[in-house]
Amino acid sequence: MLTGAPGHDIVEKNRRDLCHGTDPVPQGGAPLNKNLLRSILLIITYSVVLVLVLVKIDLIWAVAAQILGALKPLFLGFAIAFVLNRPCTFFFRLYHGGLAGRKLDRFSRPLAVLSAYVALVVVVTALFSFVLPQVADSIRLFVSSLSGYMANLQALADEVFALFDREGVDFSSLNEYLRRVLEGVLNTATNAASHVLVITSGVISMGVTLVLAIVFSVYMLSGREKLLSQCRRVMRAYLPGSWADRVQSVVQLSADTFTNFVSGQLTEACILGVLCALGMLFIQSDYAALVGVIVGTTALIPVMGAYIGAVLPAFLLLMVDPWRALAFLVFLGILQQIEGNVIYPRVVGTSIGLPGIWVLAAVTVGGGLFGLLGVLLSVPVASVLYTLLRRDVGRRLSTRQEEAPILEDTEEL
Predict the structure, then answer these.
(1) Is the dihedral of CA 85, 87, 90, 93 positive or negative?
(2) pLDDT score of 406 more than 80
(3) What is the spatial distance between Cα 184 and Cα 162, in angstroms, rounded to a whole number?
């Protein structure tokens, strides 16, 4: 073999380059780029994984559902801890302020967790012991008087249609439909306790899940500072410094937004429901508890909850007496204005900072995609995205050294 041949020179050079750790030279003479080779391998790997996912999509969904089912106690425990976080923080500040500088101060956090759970048990017990029986009695009374109410509604409708020389509407089918629905609701509420006492595998599984969720929530609440510190250390260890700061900022913003939204909605619903029930004692005392529960429950739904909470009781009272229905609508309108402009800002504080048009858009899109859960969670999610977008727009304009009026406009985005 000729030692001076070009092929022999390339082979020798590649051997020397491999020994010294440099890029080899292919037969064409052009050196290989490691970044290009790495990119090609990543593209091939991504393509193979994507094909496998598309081919085995059913199996992947089944495995994912099984994993999520196994993690259900953890998710439920996180939800309980999230709801009880603000009461637990309140009790911790109360105990810590009273026991500061004493040996018993180390029990401030356990006492706060215990107090938060005691408050939760008291609220749930009061709900099932006092509120729900009153609601059941109201529904039972309404069902027994439904025939007379429908006769009143039929007579009112005939008079209205007669004024416009139109043919009346027959409400007999509506009478049977409402009777079936209300009897079903009443039977479900009455037999709920007996159904819970039936020992089945589903009930046992639900009980185990609830117990594990409570245990997880207790650990999360009692070790809150330690868990947060560990999460920060993990982010600092595996993420670049700038990305860790961004992730921490987004998580903090999301936690504050969801906390303010959940506490605000629950407080508003309780205040509005109680005040509405008290007012109904002077309008139609028989249905005070039922109307208060309807108004308070629908107040949890953003935007549309106020209208639903007004229409349902008004229709109920319309069958009893049209003037009482009108009095209820006037009373509820005044109550909502007082609650929204006076009580809510003082008790809850500022809102989550999302303009009305974006609230309506978020509720519409969230409800269309994910149903009732989307309606309830769309507003805080949209608020987080809106705040991040506003910050990014302000940062980009500030880096371009725009004029001050433009920067002020971005604050109102």
Answers:
(1) negative
(2) no
(3) 35
* Cα→Cα distances 144→42, 126, 170, 213, 318, Å: 71, 27, 20, 42, 16
List, as one string, the DSSP characters of 48-88.
HHHHHHHHTHHHHHHHHHHHHHHTHHHHHHHHHHHHHHHHH
Beta carbons of 388 and 250 less than 8 angstroms apart: yes
Around 209, how many Cα atoms within 13 Å sit in the side-chain half-sphere?
15
- Neighbour-count burial of 143, counting CB atoms closer than 10 A to its CB (0-12 exposed, 13-18 middle, 19+ buried): middle
Choose among 182, 375, 148: nearest CA to 294: 182
Chain center to CA of 388: 19
Q: Which residue is associated with the tokens 């899940």? A: 209
Encode pLDDT of 374-388 as tens digits.
Answer: 888 888 888 888 888
In this structure, the number of other CB atoms found within 10 A of the CB of residue 258 comes to: 18
Q: Tens digit of pLDDT for each residue in 196-251?
A: 444 445 556 777 788 888 888 888 888 888 888 888 888 888 888 778 888 888 88
